[in-house]
Each structure stands twice: as C-alpha cells, then as structure tokens.
Design brief:
This protein has about 950 residues and is an alpha/beta fold. Helix content is about 45%, strand content about 15%. The protein folds into six domains: about 140 residues, Roll (Archaeosine Trna-guanine Transglycosylase, Chain: A, domain 4); about 160 residues, no CATH class; about 60 residues, no CATH class; about 180 residues, P-loop containing nucleotide triphosphate hydrolases (Rossmann fold, 3-Layer(aba) Sandwich); about 90 residues, Helicase, Ruva Protein, domain 3, CATH 1.10.8.60; about 180 residues, 2-Layer Sandwich (Ribosomal Protein S5, domain 2), CATH 3.30.230. It is built from 35 helices and 24 strands. The radius of gyration is 38 Å and the shape is elongated. The chain starts with 8 loop residues before the first strand and ends in a 7-residue tail after the last strand. One of its GO terms (biological process) is proteolysis. GO terms for molecular function: ATP binding; ATP hydrolysis activity; ATP-dependent peptidase activity; serine-type endopeptidase activity. Keywords: ATP-binding, Hydrolase, Nucleotide-binding, Protease, Serine protease.
C-alpha cells in the first residue's frame, strides 16, 4: 500500500449507483456502458502509464482501445503520478480506478482484475479493492467515469487484541446462526416453504444469498484468522460486511467509519443486528410450530391472519431500525386517538432524526428553538389537517438544505492546483483574462487561509458585456474548475420581492425564494449561483422591489445571515460564489451595482472570432451533428468569410448557428452524395447559408452619396451600444432656406441634443470670429443666418444618447456651412467644450471594433486623453500576465510624463498605435481641441485664422 502521508491521490473514479457499495479487500463486479469503458482504457493507455503487457493485450483483444481517437487527451500529470504511486513496488502493474457512492465521504481504490464483454453496449468489470480514502473533491464530470481527489487513510496497527477476539467471536456466532437458518429452511417441506415466502419474504431472500459459495468461503476464513493477524482480521471484517446481505445504508456506515476503532464499533452493531434478526424475526422452527398450532384452534383462520399481520409489523419495525442507523430505539406506544398512517410515521422518524442532529449542524440557536417548537406542534396535529401538511412541507424543505456540519469541515480548494485551474479555464474559454484572473486569486487566497482554518468570503462578480461573449458559460467553467455545484437563476422580468426572499408561511401555497430553491436543488454549500440578466430585473411594483431583495444577497457583510421569509431564520450564504451577468450595467441601480465587482467583457474582433471558430466552435458542432473531424473541412479563410459577410454582432452565437448549419448540410451530403467532398468552399456558402445581407464591405454602411444630396454635411461618428458592442453612427445634416436653429430626428436623446446645441454655438462663433482661406467671411455669415438645418441620425427606431458626439456634430455642421466634405474613410468620437477642448469618452475599444467591422473606416480621431484606454486594451491582449503588467506600468509612466510636459505631449512611442493598426486595421489620430480636427480633416483644403491674428495650426 502507498504511504498515505503524502499528498492526495487524483484518480479516475466511477460514480456508483446509490444502491451499490464497494468495500476494500473484496472483489466487486459492476456493469458499465461499453463507450465509457473504452474511453477510460483509451485515455489510460495514451497516458504513458506503466501497465502489464498481458493486461494490455487483453484490453486490445476486447477492442477497448480506440486507436483512431485523434482528439483523445491523456490523463493530467497528477492522475498519472497518483496511479504510479498506487502501483509502486508491484511487479505486475494493473489498471487502477476508484469507486465512489455519493452517500459516503469515502471512496475505494481498486485494481481491475477481470474484464468481460456482456454485449455490444455493456462491459462487466471485476475490481479488487485495495484501500479506502476520504474524497476531498468528488467526481463532478457529467460522464460516468470522471476524476476525484482522494486522501487515503492509514490503517492503525495498534488494535486491542481483546477487541479482535470479541469481534471474531461475534462474527463466528453470526455465521453459526446463518448455517442453522439455512439448515432449517432446507429441511422444511415444500408447502411450508411456499407459505414462508408469503409469511416472511425476507427468509426466502436470505436463504438464497446465505446458501451461496461466497458465504461458505467466508465461514472457512473465520476459522483461520488468529488474534495476531490484525491486517487479516480487517480483511475478514470487509468480507463479512460485503458477503452478508446487509442493507446499503449499513454497508455505507461501515465504509464511512474514519478509524479502525469506529469500524470495529460498527461491526459490533452489525453482529448484534444479525443476532436479533435470526433470533426474533427468522426463527424458522418457531414460525413452523406457531403456524400449525394456530391452525388447529377453533378460529384458526382468523388467528393465522393476525399472525401474518404481526409478522409484517415486525418486519416494518426491523426496517425502521435500519432507517434509524442500526441503533434499536424503543417504539412509542400510540394512543387510541392517534390514527396516523404508516407513511406519516416514517416521515416523523426522519424529522425526529433531523431534530436530534441539530446540535451538530451550523444553525443559529434561534432557529433550533423554532424548529423544536414546530416539531412538537407537528406531532400533536392530525395528519388530515391543512396545517399539518403545510408544516410537513416546511420541514421537508428545511431538511433538504445543505446545512454545514460542525463536526467535519473540508476545504475543497486547498488541494486544487492553480496551474490545473488555469489550464481548465483556458481550455474552455478564449480570452476573458480578467474573469479568469479573479477566480485564480480566489483559489490562491483560499489555499493560504486554509492553513489557519479561516475562510474568506466568496467573490460577488458582475460580468458585463454584449450577448454571446460567454458570460454564462464562463460561470459554468468556474464551477467546474472549483469542483462546485452550479445553479442558474434567471432574473429577467422578475417583479415580485417574494420571488427572491420567499413568502411568509402564513400564506397558502407559500414557498422559499429562488436562492433557497437553488441551495435545495444543489444540495451543497460549495456552490456557484449565476444571477443571469440582472440588468433586466423587473421594476418596483405593488409586489415590492426585487432589486432591493438582492441587496442583502450580494452584500458580503449581510449575506452571512440571509433571512428568507419562508424559512424564518438566517442562513449563511458567504461561501457561495455569486456571479451576475448583464448587457448594460448602467441599467442596474446604484446601490446594487456598488455591491458587485464588475468585470467588463468586450466583444470579439474579427480575428478573435476566426480563432474561436477554429478552436472551439467547429469541433463542437462537428461532434453535435454526428460527424467525424475528417468529414468536415472549414479553413480559416472560410471562417473569415462567414464572419465578414454573415455575422455583425459582438458575440459568437450567430457564428455558432451558421457553422452548425453548414455541418447539418454536410451531414445530409455524407448520406446522399457518392463523391462526397468534405472541404467547404467560398462558393458553397450561399448554398449553405443563403444570400448574405451585404455582398461587400461598402454595402454595410452606405457612404451617403446621392443624386439629390451633396457629399458635405455627412460625418461618421462612433457609438457604444446598450448591448456592449460598438458600431458606426452616421450624422447627416441638410440646410434649407430659413432662420431656425437645428432640428433633429432619429430618436436623439437629451444629452445628444445638448451636444447639438453646443455644436451650433461653436460653429456660429467660428464663422463670426475666424476666417477660412478660400471663403468670403460675409458670404459664410449670411449663409449661416439664412439656413435652417435638419440633422438626422439614421435607424430612427433605436434611441441614441450620450456625451461622446460633440466633436462629430460640430464638424458636421461646419462641413454643411463650408460646403466642404469630410472624407468618408474617417470616423471620430469625443465630446467638446465651449472652449473647443476635446474631452475623453468611454467604450473606446468597442467603438474601434465597430469601426473595424464596418469595413470602410481606416482612420479614427479620438481625444488625446483616451490614449490610456488603448494602453490598457493593448496590455490585456498579452497572454503572459506578468509581461503584461510590466508593459502596462512602463507605458502608463511614459503617458503620465508626456501629459505633464506640453512639449512632449505627442512624443510617445508608437507601440500601442501599431497594435491598433494591426488588430483593427485602423490608424489612430489624437486631438486635444477642435482645431486639431480641422488640421487632420481639411489640412489641404482650408486654413483657419482669427480675423485679427492668424491662428497657429
């Protein structure tokens, strides 16, 4: 056996059915699906683990190794190392696997000793148990065979010889009673055996099991064990519990005993149970004699009927004893006024056991008093009353909650490798470095605090970004990475306070809130709860404000005592990880927003979409549509074509739908076309996906040229959309004879209208105080005075607002008055003041992405003070976070130096700008004031000077 003082074992683990229990030192046979077994052996043999050649040949002969599985990944290094430690010092290296019944905190590490094909879909595998170990992190895979972390237990060699002698005697007595029972049963006549099957079904079942060869071998082994052979004694105990037909609960209790002393205590209880079983319930001679004696009396039929009823009551009492955990509790005598049925008695036993165990659970004292009081009331009620049913339902919900035990506290994060966690997150998702880094920080801090038995409060995160960027799926990956359960709560449209906090028990049909329901479903406090679409939660109404209920849930200082109205007492939520998602974080109320740590997830660039499509989407869609990798060939160029012509959103949902559509078309072709070609060509896209909305980049965003309208008064702005994406936003101005000020259409908001008024004032001042070369100042002034301007922002069904279009509208109005076009390949963003200063704006990265996706913008004008945002975006693109932090520090210090020195304001390295040019195919131009824009836009068309002195451009 391995030295268990070393680190925990990471082993492949089979999740057993609830009624199956494997014990150490016993041969155990299970049936598993062929595909799962084949996947296990394929992974095992591809992991370069030393295995006996004869075993390898057996597995290959049974076709349990898939040699064509190109995507099969080997076991992680920790698993390979753990298997090697289990097989250490063994001449023959067998296959190693663990088995785990979720009802027990222990798993059994075993060798595979026999494999047999039952049919084309099922394998029979025989396992020899080696030793047991505490499960630190259970198998959370959705497959039957996953991975668990097991901490093996040491066998205590210092066992009292008197205890061994006592146990051996008790086991021997049980075997003697069993032999006598088999002898009596065998000697009975056929008629009585048939009667016994009806009178006591347990007798027939036990006879079948105790008359087998395994039980006879056990009886022989007992006589061979001496008092000095402590290890053999423990093996005998394992065999006794395994061979004798104990219930699953009894076997689990034996397996779950953490020490040898406690195991011996369980053996004592089991042997006492066996003695009572044979002496009081399965005395065949007594049953035979009693039946004949009663039949000879005058009312023999009636007496025999009562005897049968009595036997079944005894059997039920025996089952109640099993439910109570082997301890034989005296039955309560029911008064004549109590007419509860048997099912109600069973339920009351469960509640009674829960109440007795309250002192071992982490529940407040007030809650314990309240539960005890309610239970006393419940016992006095008639089961037919409505109040009884309501109180019963209440106890069912309370008992289903995963109350932490005060006796055992296991930190599941202390054995999680940071490197493994990082690899899992990177394998599941592309990018999202900020979210991944925050989870790794949480794991690191938890590992550090576990040494001092302290627990940190779990993070409360808000993932904000456009639809389809992976907010929900990253939350699932976090749960998988940590070994936590995952529950999703959709908040969209919820408008009832009670949905979050529960209804008070006084109402008919009352129930707990969504948080408590999630706890009940997961049955674990190690939980990740996703609060999906938190920005779309309903408005306050006569039913209360559901947002206000979340204030308590998402406050680390308050959720240690979250009070659900239905429960009526506080419950600690501080160890639950809450992850909220939103598309527009500004729709969240300020108090709620302040409680969460916001992580902004940007939309994907075209290059990123191509990368995600190749690495993640195509393999996933090929598998989902029943194809093999060699049956579909979609190149990067084709993915890029799909992204350019068919997808225009920030996320990747539409890209996944389109690739899935191609795979479905290919699936049809594989079945119907004789000369099938797996390659997807550019000319096939129209056949597979239909006609794209636009056939060229220039069609996506029209240049605005018209036979009726001159090209001036048209400027490209940039917008940050409510879904977190960016896009091109065109501003159009038309002048007609008149003298009114600018009128606007296109669902323009108040802030945008203020910027419009500001632009109007700035242009009027420029025309009256400055001269434009090539223009008559008097003519410009008259044109300004005699022109009514109509501004329109296309796509009028979409509301537009925000303080980032002042520069755009000012240059647009000036273009109209000067009748001087602004180049259509230029876009700009930024606010302007009355002193012509350019103010920084938000969402710059998303706006650049929108400009890039338009296909017609190659130059973007942004405020000089926004360069720091581009520095942050540039360093976020680094895969090496240490290198990114060093580069970020260097560039920010350089930026600070440039901004503090007017002579060096534009003397920065062009590293960031080169990255923007490469990533977005856009050239960045910085401006400090409106005159800088004139220099960039019309440098060769006109110059501006004051009417008194020439301005310095």
């Amino acid at each position: 056996m391995i030295k268990t003082t070393e680190t925990a074992l990471h082993l492949p683990t089979v999740n057993l059915e609830p009624d199956l229990v494997q014990l150490p030192n016993v041969v155990f046979t299970i049936s598993l699906p062929f595909n799962d077994v084949r996947r296990f052996f394929t992974t095992y043999t591809s992991s370069n683990i030393e295995v006996s050649e004869s075993l390898k040949r057996t597995v290959k002969k049974l076709n349990l190794i898939d040699t064509t599985e190109s995507n099969q990944k080997p076991f992680p290094d920790l698993v390979v190392e753990s298997i090697s430690r289990v097989n250490e010092n063994r001449d023959v290296k067998p296959f190693v696997i663990a088995t785990h019944n979720i009802k027990s905190p222990f798993a059994v590490v075993s060798n595979i000793i026999r494999i047999k094909l039952m049919d084309s879909k099922t394998c029979s595998i025989s396992l020899k148990g080696l030793f047991k170990g505490m499960v630190v992190m259970a198998n959370t895979e959705h497959t039957l065979i996953g991975e668990s972390i097991i901490s093996a237990t040491e066998n205590d060699s210092n066992i009292d010889l008197n205890e061994i002698e006592h146990c051996l005697t008790a086991v021997n007595d049980c075997i003697s009673l069993s032999k006598q029972f088999v002898k009596d049963f065998t000697s009975s006549d056929t008629d009585f055996k048939n009667l016994l099957a009806k009178l006591n079904p347990l007798a027939t079942m036990l006879f079948i099991q105790l008359n087998g060869s395994y039980f006879k071998i056990l009886a022989e082994e007992v006589n061979r064990v001496t008092l000095k052979e402590s290890n053999k004694f423990l093996q005998l105990c394992d065999a006794f519990v395994s061979v004798f037909p104990f219930s699953t609960e009894q076997q689990i209790r034996y397996l779950s005993a953490p020490t040898i002393v406690e195991q011996i205590s369980v053996i004592k209880l089991l042997t006492d149970f066996v003695k009572e079983l044979f002496e009081e319930y399965l005395d065949v001679s007594y049953l035979h004699e009693s039946w004949i004696k009663l039949g000879k009396q005058r009312n023999g039929r009636a007496l025999q009927s009562k005897f049968i009823v009595s036997q079944f009551k005894n059997l039920k009492a025996l089952l109640d004893t099993l439910d109570d955990g082997l301890e034989n509790k005296p039955q309560k005598t029911m008064s004549s006024s109590e007419f509860k049925d048997d099912d109600d008695d069973d339920d009351l036993h469960l509640i009674d056991a829960f109440i007795d165990n309250l002192n071992n659970l982490d529940i407040s004292e007030d809650a314990k008093k309240m539960l005890n009081k309610d239970f006393k009331r419940l016992k006095k009620m008639q089961s037919s009353t409505t109040e009884y049913q309501q109180l019963r339902n209440y106890f069912d919900i309370v008992m289903d909650l995963p109350w932490p035990s005060l006796l055992t506290t296991v930190n599941t994060l202390k054995d999680i490798s940071l490197q493994n966690a990082k690899e899992m997150l990177d394998r599941d998702h592309f990018g999202m470095d900020a979210a991944k880094q925050r989870i790794l920080e949480y794991i690191a801090i938890s590992k550090l605090m576990s040494s001092s038995n302290n627990q940190q409060k779990s993070p409360i995160l808000l993932l904000n970004g456009p639809p389809g960027v992976g907010k929900t799926s990253i939350a699932k990956s976090v749960a998988h990475c940590l070994g936590y359960e995952f529950q999703r709560i959709s908040l969209g449209g919820i408008n009832d306070f009670a949905d979050m906090k529960g209804h008070r028990r006084t109402y008919v049909g009352a129930g707990p809130g969504l948080i408590i329901q999630a706890l009940r479903k997961s049955n674990s406090m190690k939980l990740v709860i996703l609060l999906d679409e938190i920005d779309k939660i309903g408005m306050p109404s006569h039913k209360g404000n559901p947002e206000a209920a979340l204030l308590e849930v998402l406050d680390p200082e308050q959720n240690v005592s979250f009070n659900d109205h239905y429960l009526g007492f506080p419950i600690n939520l501080s160890q639950i990880i809450f992850i909220a998602t939103s598309n527009d974080k500004w729709e969240i109320s300020a108090p709620l927003f302040d409680r969460m740590e916001t992580i902004d997830l940007d939309g994907y660039t075209g290059k990123e979409k191509v990368e995600i499509g190749e690495r993640f989407i195509i393999p996933r869609q090929i598998k989902r549509n029943g194809l093999k990798p060699e049956q579909v060939n979609i190149s990067k160029d084709i993915i890029n074509e799909i992204v350019d012509l068919y997808t225009h959103e920030a996320g990747i949902r539409n890209l996944e739908r389109l690739i899935g559509k191609i795979c479905r078309k290919k699936a049809i072709e594989t079945m119907s076309v004789s000369n099938y070609n797996p390659v997807v060509r550019k000319e096939d896209l129209i056949m597979y996906l239909g006609v794209p909305a636009t056939l060229s980049d220039s069609d996506k965003y029209s240049s605005g040229d018209s036979n009726f309208q001159e090209p001036y008064g048209l400027v490209n702005g940039l917008s940050y959309n409510s879904d977190g994406s960016g896009s091109l936003l065109k501003f159009e101005m038309v002048g007609v004879p008149g003298s009114q000020r600018i009128s606007a259409t296109g669902m323009v908001g108040e802030v945008l209208m203020e910027s419009c008024s500001l632009a109007e004032t700035l242009v009027e001042q420029l025309i009256h105080t400055h001269e434009f070369s090539g223009y008559d100042s008097k003519v410009l002034s008259e044109r300004l005075s005699n022109t009514s301007v109509h501004m329109h922002v296309p796509q009028g069904s979409i509301r537009k607002d925000g303080p980032s279009a002042g520069l755009t509208m000012t240059i647009c109005y000036l273009s109209l008055i000067l009748k001087l076009p602004v180049p259509s390949n230029i876009a700009m963003t930024g606010e302007v003041t009355l002193t012509y200063k350019a103010l920084p704006i938000g969402g710059l990265k998303e706006k650049l992405l929108g400009a890039s996706m338009s296909g017609k913008i190659d130059k973007v004008i942004v405020p000089r003070l926004n360069r720091q945002n581009l520095i942050a975006a540039y360093t976020e693109s680094f895969k090496d976070r240490d290198a990114a932090n060093i580069k970020l520090t260097k560039l920010i210090l350089e930026e600070e130096s440039c901004l503090n020195n007017l002579s060096r304001r534009y003397s920065f390295s062009g590293e960031v700008e080169a990255w923007v040019r490469q990533e977005y195919m856009i050239e960045i131009k910085y401006v400090d004031d409106f005159m800088d824009i004139l220099r960039y836009v019309w440098a060769d068309k006109t110059t501006v000077k004051r009417k008194e002195t020439k301005a310095h451009l």
